[in-house]
Amino acid sequence: MAIYTWTPSAYVTTLIPGDNVLWLTMNADDILDDSNPNGDDGGEFYDQRPGFDGFGADFCTQPCQLGWKPADIQVTANNDFLAANPFLEALFPLMRPSVIDISILQVEQGNGDGSEAEVESIAAGWIADNQDLVSSWLEEAAAAVS
Description:
The protein has helices spanning 79-84, 86-91, 99-111, 116-129, 131-145. It has 5 helices and no strands. It has 2 domains: 1-71, no CATH class; 73-146, D-Maltodextrin-Binding Protein, domain 2, CATH 3.40.190.
């Protein structure tokens, strides 16, 4: 069976590359280049870059060329907000949580009551479990604006 999915998503909490599924490779000739055929502002940077090829044979058929990045999580923020908050402007690009972590958090949130308190609790739990990583993001952002 072949399933097309994306990450992060709840699928990768049950279909785990290297455990019970493999990523499939693409032919290099089938991968989009950075030509930005739609002419989108900044389009040359999104989903047209060379795909991730660092998975070993236990994760992906070889040679492993996914054709796109396995995750592309981006923060969207208003330009005026960013101008007024240089620390956050420096922080947002540094924030790179694990695709698996985000997928698991999506499952937790989907199984819950959807309240703001629950979402805050899930987020606080992830931050506590990943405090060293979060601290490194905060320290690097602070250094960038000082």
